Amino acid sequence: MALSKKPVNGMKDIMPQEMQIRDYVMGVIKETYGKFGFTPMETPCMENIANLSNKQGGENEKLIFKVMKRGEKLNLETAQSEEDLVDFGMRYDLTVPLVRYYSNHANELPSPFKALQMGNVWRADRPQRGRYRQFMQCDIDILGEASNLAEIELILATTTTLGKIGFKNFEIRINDRRILKAMAAYSGFAEENYDSIFITLDKMDKIGLEGVEAELLEEGYAKESVEKYLGLFKGMQESEDTLAFIEEKMTGFLDDEVKASFREIVESVNATKGDHFKLVFDPTLVRGMSYYTGTIFEIAMPEFGGSCGGGGRYDKMVGKFTGKDVPACGFSIGFERIILLLMESGFKVPGQSKKIAYLIEKGVEGDALCKVIAEAQDARKDGTQVLVARMNKNKKFQKEQLMAEGYEEFKEFYKNPLAN
Closest by alpha carbon to 364, among 352, 356, 372? Predict the structure, then answer.
């Protein structure tokens, strides 16, 4: 039986043309984030299974690729539960590994610590457009900064980076988990039901207000609470200043300090940003991770029709490792979706050096071959990218393939000098 030549379902081989774009985008990301003071770091691809399944990762905890114990630790005959079989898991995001890393090395790191982490993560998800089981994530995080300066810096760094890659007219949707909780409390819902209510609310863009109402009533919530809750959203839709409307309605349910901080984030970003994106207060934005404690944000791109990244504040997560809470906030770019959009738009890497292919006929050997190689070496000194390769029988097809990779000039060398 022949071995399978296709990659595992939900994972993909990356062709040279895409790899060039990926390398370019990673370079822009590293350079731009570096100018904002973010420091590159790295964590292992695996974490202890207890760290990954601590009820902080929301639905992603159901998608962990679990790693079986090895050697003498693995005893299938006596195993009675999953805990007897599994000890590690592939990381499903970069936030949990970062927090473990920070908890382990806090004394060696500056405060605040501005981290840049790029790496693959794995989720046993259902593959679809822009969604894979192995994919690259690109995160920036600030740990140790309690003020809203963290949110402002993260939003500006991320949007500056997207602008340098070439994206325009996108939105940063922003909300706060404390606003979500205040709205639920105002409506009379019990605190233990908040997460369930937010999961339904998160479907607003797909099922609308009526769909959210029907689902909440079907789940058994009081009609009076559901109507009061949805009345807030109807009121915001009719209001000219959505944020002012919710600030007034949440009096007594939301601390004035939270209101002032949130408004300062919005006003500071709007006062200093470029014109390539809009900052939009979105009271339906939830974000699925349970570890978020305050401000949350998401990148919405019209070309993709969905989220291309997001993040928020998670002030309670370090305390899970150390027993002492540390303020933390992060923003993740949806790297794979951005690459997908660039590929679909026919994006060409700017500023590439000239690419020439030297095609050498079979039979060009010895001194003649050395002369070709020496000429290629001289051309490379000037910054030209030179490919030296033997000429195929189907030279036309060979050139077409090379042109697809960006080669714009060809030099051909034959064993008969008169043919050159």
Answer: 372
